[in-house]
């Protein structure tokens, strides 16, 4: 009995010597469950809990023993990570406690987001991926064979894809997807026609002279002036990973009624979501910025709001495949000025439902797209509207991190 008592006391002593568990608490302030909530945790928060991490050591977050989908992002290009981007399931109005530890072997996760720019200056269908690119002076809109695969950068997640015309049009388009794999690097090569349905999906949108899938414009004297031809353009991948991808398109020398402007579009796409987020960066502060949705085949603009956001959306048999497609623009309530509609014909921007932002704001917005073949949820306007409402909550929610 004495020996057992000594062993028991020894075990108690060992337990007392163990360092306390390190945790991160996420406070969900939403009154509904979110299956995959995007959350960003700054490095300073992690190192306040773990201490300064030595070279070759990384933070690791787990939820009840399972690795949380996560990635370490270097946003300023100095070779050191600045943020952890994670996706986590949150229960309505409930705290989520994650275990935080150190590891020397960072987990390898399935790639669920991507951005791709294929370049071939010889127009010989021999595209090479580039992470940085200055727009070539000979890249003329709608000149084929293409210099840029898919006419510009294309980004996707496991739900939906998009592309930006890297030329004088500067429009945005949608790729409807029927697979959760990253496939857009296969689109637009010789023998592949992304305007016809492939085993991964297709280009589903007719953009024309509209704002398409969230293109940028300014309001000037009751008219929309679209971000179009510029003196120069640059593309840069910031981060690309299993959880989120961020890239920038930088426009210099945009001739506008208020002078020449330089504008940067910073675009983020998270895994598991039905859209992308854009932040518009410009030194000119007295601009009323606008974004919008093509309404060429849509008969109605729906509107909605959450406590922190406002949104507009359409739903109709408006895809290039002649099936149902829903599109939405979500903005924060404090940046919203107005929503409206352009003419359906004439000069400039036409066939567009739009949202205008307050002047002196740096606009941030979220564009949502739901194609019926992707998910049966998008077979009705009500089903798409439910998705938009949830995406609006995700876009505008503030998760408190402790």
TrEMBL record:
Pfam families in UniProt: DUF4861 (PF16153)
Keyword annotations from UniProtKB, A to Z: Signal
Signal peptide region: 1-21
Protein name according to UniProt: DUF4861 domain-containing protein
Biological source species: Reichenbachiella agariperforans
Lineage, highest ranks first: Bacteria, Pseudomonadati, Bacteroidota, Cytophagia, Cytophagales
């Amino acid at each position: 009995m004495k020996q057992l008592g000594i062993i028991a006391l020894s075990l108690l002593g060992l337990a007392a010597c163990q360092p306390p568990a390190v945790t991160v608490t996420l406070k969900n302030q939403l009154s509904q469950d979110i299956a995959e909530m995007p959350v960003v945790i700054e490095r300073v928060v992690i190192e306040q809990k773990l201490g300064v991490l030595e070279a070759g050591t990384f933070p690791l977050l787990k939820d009840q023993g399972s690795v949380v989908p996560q990635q370490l992002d270097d946003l300023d290009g100095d070779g050191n990570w600045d943020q952890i981007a994670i996706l986590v399931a949150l229960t309505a109005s409930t705290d989520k406690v994650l275990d935080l530890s150190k590891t020397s072997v960072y987990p390898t996760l399935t790639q669920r987001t991507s951005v791709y720019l294929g370049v071939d200056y010889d127009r010989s269908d021999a595209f090479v991926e580039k992470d940085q690119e200055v727009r070539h002076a000979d890249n003329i809109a709608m000149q084929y064979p293409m210099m840029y695969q898919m006419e510009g950068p294309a980004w996707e997640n496991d739900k939906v894809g998009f592309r930006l015309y890297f030329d004088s049009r500067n429009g945005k388009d949608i790729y409807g997807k029927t697979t959760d794999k990253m496939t857009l690097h296969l689109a637009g090569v010789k023998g592949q026609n992304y305007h016809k349905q492939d085993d991964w999906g297709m280009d589903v949108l007719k953009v024309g002279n509209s704002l398409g899938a969230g293109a940028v414009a300014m309001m000037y004297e009751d008219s929309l002036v679209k971000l179009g031809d510029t003196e120069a353009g640059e593309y840069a991948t910031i981060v690309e990973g299993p959880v989120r991808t961020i890239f920038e398109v930088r426009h210099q020398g945009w001739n506008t009624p208020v002078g020449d402007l330089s504008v940067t579009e910073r675009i983020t796409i998270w895994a598991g979501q039905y859209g992308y987020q854009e932040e518009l960066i410009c030194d000119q502060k007295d601009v009323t910025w606008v974004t919008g949705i093509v309404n060429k085949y849509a008969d109605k603009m729906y509107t909605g709001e959450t406590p922190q956001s406002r949104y507009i959306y359409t739903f109709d048999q408006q895809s290039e495949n002649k099936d149902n497609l829903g599109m939405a623009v979500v903005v924060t309530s404090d940046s919203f000025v107005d929503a409206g509609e352009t003419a359906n014909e004439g000069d400039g921007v036409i066939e567009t439902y739009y949202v205008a932002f307050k002047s002196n704001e740096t606009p941030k917005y979220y564009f949502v797209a739901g194609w019926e073949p992707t998910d049966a949820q998008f077979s009705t306007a009500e089903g798409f509207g439910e998705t938009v409402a949830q995406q609006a909550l995700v876009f505008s929610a503030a998760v408190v991190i402790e």
